[in-house]
Each structure stands twice: as structure tokens, then as C-alpha cells.
Write a structure and sequence with these properties.
The chain is α/β, with parallel strands linked by helices and 252 residues long. The strands form two sheets. It has a six-stranded mixed beta sheet, sandwiched between helices. The protein has a four-stranded antiparallel beta sheet with strand order 2-1-4-5, covered by helices on one side. Strand 1 and strand 2 form a beta hairpin. The longest helix is centred in the middle third of the chain and has 14 residues. It binds adenosine-5'-triphosphate (ATP) and magnesium ion (MG). The site of adenosine-5'-triphosphate has 12 residues, from strand 2 and helix 1.
Amino acid sequence: MNAGVVEAKSLNFYYGTFQALKEINLDIGANRVTALIGPSGCGKSTLLRVLNRMSDLVPETRATGLLKVLGRDIFDPGYDVNDLRRKVGMVFQHPNPFPDSVYENLVFGFRIAGVRDREVLWQAVEESLRAVDLWKDLADRLDENAVGLSPDFQQRLCIARAIAIKPKIILMDEPCSSLDPIATEKIEELIFRLKENYTIVIVTHSMHQAARISEMTGFMLLGELIEFDSTKKIFRNPCEQRTEDYITGKFG
Ligand SMILES: Nc1ncnc2c1ncn2[C@@H]1O[C@H](COP(=O)(O)OP(=O)(O)OP(=O)(O)O)[C@@H](O)[C@H]1O
Ligand SMILES: [Mg+2]
């Protein structure tokens, strides 16, 4: 079951009249890490946000083409966006815990869904904290305000919050860009473990990071997906001159 978690065909996306994504064709397989790289402004975040229709939140935007996520056309007018966002979680560049307790951060998705069963909530809290290796550090600190945690803990808590409701796909937009090298290494180890259970799509400015953690890499430029292939191929022997120029640092 390694195909078809995300399938895009001739996907275009517009902010007003500006076309930010151009004829994107993409096939993302399950339980893999897929990295999106490319210079600033090439459309990486836009592509990521279209995948769970967070892009809807920007007014006067429009998408065309086909985008199937978990086998369903997410632009279908009857499609339930809330359901999509439960299945496709997101982690952002800067850790963004809510200014509330660790516990409330973790059960947020359940509160929205109206789940009140304390057993269910406790189980989700423990499981998600264990998944990000924070259980032993935070089990006794569930009442603490999350914004007081270190940046590393905050970002891991945000990942735990995303996985608490058991999504299928986790989107990460430069999740390490505000972290130091040690915290970055921890998040990378975490991503490596999480792919056993989740499909991960990560935007990164760091080509080293993409090379370290992903199986597949997409190189984007000016809204186009120039090349999408195994990470080894992209970094060792890309087909496109523009990919090679980018990864060898000829432009950035
Ligand atoms: N809300 C918006 N309204 C209008 N244009 C936008 C909006 N968000 C992004 N854009 C434009 O769309 C293009 C792609 O932006 P996007 O943020 O997806 O790029 P990116 O590859 O993530 O860049 P970075 O590496 O700097 O994060 C850019 O030209 C950007 O200016
Ligand atoms: Mg971005």
C-alpha cells in the first residue's frame, strides 16, 4: 500500500490572479517521508497547505486540477473539510502551542470533536506524549502552561497535539527552523520513528535535512514541481539541470 496517499494531477493554485502552483503532478506513498525543497517563494508552503485545504483560509484563492488525499477528491463540493483536517495534521515553522496547559493542548482535537470520555482523553495524552518521547518529562507537568516550555518541548508538544487524534498524514512546514541543532536532531529522530505509523510531508530549507530524513524529494521552482524522485536520485543524479544547480548551491 505504498501509493496513492496523496495524488495530484495538473494541480494549480492561485492567490487572486497570481498563480502560485503550476500543473503539479505528484504521487505520495504511505509511511514515507517526502521532502519538499526549493528557493524561497517557490510554493512549498502553498502546496503543503493545499493538501489539507488550510489554503481555503486565505480569501480569494482558487485551486484547479485534481487532488486526491487518501483516495478522495478533496475539491469535491460535498467533501467534509473538517474530516480532512482530522486526517491530515499540520505542524508549523514556529512552535505554536495554545496558551493553556499541556493537557489541554493535547486534547484540543477531542474537545472540538465533542469527546468527553476522560479515559479516552487520558489515553490519547499518554500515547501522544510517549510517541514524541515526552512522557517521562511531562507526565507530572500536564497542568503547566505549554508556552513556558523550552522551544524543543513546545515543538514536540505540537507534534504530539497533531498526532493525538491519529491522523494519517502529518504535514510539517520547516518544523526545525526555530530550533537549535540538538533540538533539530531530536525532531529528526522523531520523524524517523513516526513514519512507521504516519505519512509525513516536510518542507525544509535544509538540503542536508531532506537528504537525512526523507525517502522521496520534490524540488520546486517558481510554482512548478521541477523534479520528484527518490531522495538518493535527486541528490546524487538528478535528471534536471535546474535541480542540480540548486542542490550544488548555484542559486538559492
Ligand atoms: N497569502 C498570500 N497571498 C498572496 N500571495 C501569497 C500568499 N502566500 C504566499 N503567496 C505567494 O505565493 C508564492 C509562494 O509562496 P510560499 O509561501 O508557498 O513559498 P515557500 O516556498 O513556502 O517560500 P519560503 O521558503 O519563503 O517559505 C510566493 O510568491 C508568495 O509571495
Ligand atoms: Mg514556506
